[in-house]
Amino acid sequence: MRIPFRKMHGLGNDFVVIDARERAVEMSARRAAALADRHTGIGCDQLILLEPSETADVRMRIFNPDGGEVEACGNASRAVGLYLGGDKRIETLGGIIAASTSDTGISVAMGRPRFGWDEIPLAYPMDTLTMPVGWEDLVEPVAVNVGNPHVIFFVPDTHSVDLARLGPLIENDPLFPRRINVNVATLTGPDALDLRVWERAAGLTRACGTGACASAIAAMRRKLTGRRVTVTLPGGPLVIEWTDADEIIMTGPATTSFEGSFGTSDYPA
Ligand SMILES: N[C@H](CCC[C@H](N)C(=O)O)C(=O)O
């Protein structure tokens, strides 16, 4: 049997999107990892499975390239918003998010940020606004949960950080019981950040929507910016707003690259 999919991306952070609302598709960690593999599979940063939802217009399941299912994916939320069109509520493990499509791009309301050490989560109590920890030159980060967990280091120059080496060290530190997405951010203007991200289980990506949300919120909490920030990633810019209603709104592009299909026998569940 062949399963159709849509290859999509948000600023180069790419996804294989499978719409299983009409016909169920079994998604094991093995199948998700095989599909995401860039050498032997279709290749993507995350695999996205759309299923019927009891509480929203659609349920969006998010699988990292290691096959692990996770709570949130900002760029994929915009991609699914583009695919579905109009205003849609999307159920995720991290909560219900709302996507709306306009001529300035796709906006996604990502819910409210969480700052409690046990909400990140961390392994033990700690101030999450200036954490008393460090890994070589990366010290005193901020931790934020925006559906998924993020740690944010403010540095003089994101490009001088050896993120390929330090990212996995921090991602897998026992301080983070569910591992963590690692962000290095530089303030480049009154309301502007430069950002690079080592994604939990995915590594260096061209863009990370939840990383942009978490880093913007971290800058706002530290009073480095106002409540509307442009975050520039290697793949391009995203605009993040933290509303007075404690909602994170992310606006940016999404693109459909191509449509295809795969054989279930080639990718056993
Ligand atoms: N690797 C992330 C999931 C995808 C996040 C990123 N692709 C985004 O756009 O938010 C995690 O394990 O939490």
From TrEMBL:
The record marks 150, 199 as: Could be important to modulate the pK values of the two catalytic cysteine residues. It is an enzyme of class 5 (isomerase). Substrate binds at residues 13, 46, 64, 74-75, 148, 181, 199-200, 209-210. One of its GO terms (molecular function) is diaminopimelate epimerase activity. The keyword Transferase does not apply. It catalyses: (2S,6S)-2,6-diaminopimelate = meso-2,6-diaminopimelate. Pathway: Amino-acid biosynthesis; L-lysine biosynthesis via DAP pathway; DL-2,6-diaminopimelate from LL-2,6-diaminopimelate: step 1/1. The active site is at residues 73, 208. Signal peptide: none annotated. Keywords: Amino-acid biosynthesis, Cytoplasm, Isomerase, Lysine biosynthesis. GO terms for cellular component: cytosol. Coiled coil: none annotated. It is found in: Cytoplasm. GO terms for biological process: lysine biosynthetic process via diaminopimelate. Belongs to the diaminopimelate epimerase family. Homodimer. This is Diaminopimelate epimerase. It comes from Novosphingobium nitrogenifigens DSM 19370.
